[in-house]
Amino acid sequence: MSYDKQLIGKKLRRWEKYMDNYSLPTWEEIPDFGLYMDQIITLLKKYLDYLPPDVQNGEVITAATINNYVRKKNMPEPVKKRYYRIHIAYLIMICSLKHTLSMNMITTIIPADLPEDKLREVYAKYSQTLQRTGRMFVESVRFMAGKILDHEPVSDAMVEDTDELVVAAAAYAGYAQLLAEKLIALKGKKLTEMDPSELYT
To answer: Across residues 35-61, what is the average pLDDT?
Structure first.
């Protein structure tokens, strides 16, 4: 079964417009008065509405998943079953990274025991990076899908059709994930301490 070029073009343009305007809430916009689990889930769905729901349960995040993050100490524990700004900030970052990185890698770059002032700084930087990267990715898709979107001039680097765009997007994601994992593995290491053979892997 083939793709409808007009439908794909329309969806890509709509997604592009959405991503151009998307941003995470600022630190001050995140509620800090103690929310219960069902309120947290509703809020995260709103903040992370660009993420696809999980295939198994149809949700971006579930209570069981949040409880698991707390149990495994990937984030601070709630206070009397209430979640505050620090918890929500952790969940926003975890949820938006879990599609590409393991929890071990996420906690390497965002430790679960950050003091609030440091977490605020990490969250602000994360939000800016996510927004910039989203815009950069939109530009890449706009270029790769130039023939689908009828852009001029046409380049040899553009994909021919949606089948190729799917493969290109998956390959792009794979390369990006590989880079992130390789960089995380280098955290805390020094060039002078590394075995020369490690430089080529």
So the answer is: 83
